[in-house]
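Lecture 7, part B: from sequences to assemblies.

Below are the input chains for today's worked example.
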Amino acid sequence: MRGATRLLQRLARTLLVVLLVVVGSTLLMRFAPGYLSDAREMDARYAGAARIELSAEAARSGTLWQLLSNEMHAWTKGSLGLSRQYDVPVLQLIGPRLAVTGSLMLRSIVLAWTLALCASLLSSAGRNPSMLWQAPAAVLLAVPTAAMATLSLLAGSGGPVLVMTLLLAARDFKFLDRTLRTAWRDPCLLQARAQGIPALRLVRAHILPGIRPQLLALATLSIVTALGALVPVEVIFNVPGVGQLAWNAAMNRDLPVLLAVTMIMAIAVTLAGMTSDRSIDWQAA
Amino acid sequence: MRARRLALWALLGLVLAAAAVVWAPNSSYSNQDRDLPLAGASVHHPAGTDALGRDRMVRVAAALLLGLAGAVAAAAATTLAAAAVGALSAFSPAALGAAGMMVCDVFLALPWLFLLMMVRSALPLTTSPGSSAAITFFVLAALGWPACARAVYRGAVNLKHAEWMLQARAGGLRPSQMLRHVMPNLMPLLVPQFLISIPAFIMAEANLGALGLGIGEPLPSWGGMLAELDSSAMLLQTRWVYLPIALLILVLLLVEAISVEARP
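Predicted structure of the full complex, as structure tokens:
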């Protein structure tokens, strides 16, 4: 009963966070200093009177209440609003791209986790952190995603999955190496090693179950990091995903599309966070 | 500790060298040598020129100073905001504290790059380069505080329940007096947060600039110069286009080396 109540409380909190994200993003967008300016106002082909009418129209349809109600109406209808650039429902634009982005993220996260876990298991077996493992991770973390993607493109080797994998693996490795090092220092594990129990068995039966909460937290962090890397990678490699759509919308001031993408990402992050928290609760129970 | 000191001296040396290049007589990051676009290294232009004939060395040095100054200012603002929100939430009534942390949760749920793009794209069409630089770092600071505020909140709650604090409260210490004692105890948490934020903000600006949403031209920035790498014609002309990225990685490694030993 208590578990169900806690689950309901957590769900309610998640819903409240999502609602606040929607309202907050809409407010932020509405009060951004250039919200009411339209690229058409810079077009010399429009007469002065037409330009004045354009800004007056934007001001009329840009009241906060109207904007919020339009946004809510579009979300309840399921269209997610109307794209200013393409004049089609935002859902039509986002739908096919979600699969591309999802596949890119899933492949990158799985590969990065495999790479980071193998590297950190090997690295943490040593007594002190070795430069052989630490130095490549430090260098990879110091390269901005856009630069890494551009260099990979220029070198003609690798692709979006490789760049995202390297970025995520470097971050995951740093976290996993520290966690595994702490786990190996546990007195019961030191004794088990001294007794000659194989390291692989200790990892499988003791270490991995013991660090499950940290792994779940890292899973959420991986999703957040992947979302951050998504835009530069998709733009530079010309991957037709949500990140590229968001960049395109930002360059063309298509704010309804950008708002919808931001909110979908926010919901994904919130749900991922909630799932990992829930799993920790289940484990604790 | 020795590595940290070395990194600090190396970074200081780089900053001084960059300042000397930028403030040398007759050097300007926006001056164009129209006869020498995409020139290689020469006496007049030690690192060549860019596609518009501007001295690459001066531009890289100016980008280093601008990027570091902006990131340090944004990190300071972020840390101050986080300290204020975290400490006030911990020491205010429970409902207010929960509301403060809810605001943090809302910000943490928003993917920062998408939010940055949204704010940057909604700026007026006629934003000046100086304003675009200020706005970029201001937005970074405005979005960077919640994670730090959560850490400060946790630290402040621990302090609130510490024995010396309970005794002080029982002895009638006022909240304003309590905060005066709490802040120095939070410094070991705030200093690493400040140092961690600097490379994060430099990297964020570089990523935004490479996407064309960062600091406006003709102001030089890491991101703007990374965007140059998109032109393969330019890469064939001169290898000096790789200078900004090499220097950016060096700066980030040095800042990371300085911050790594300050972490708890």
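Note for the exam: The two ends of chain A are 13 Å apart (CA to CA). Keep this in mind when comparing with the next example.
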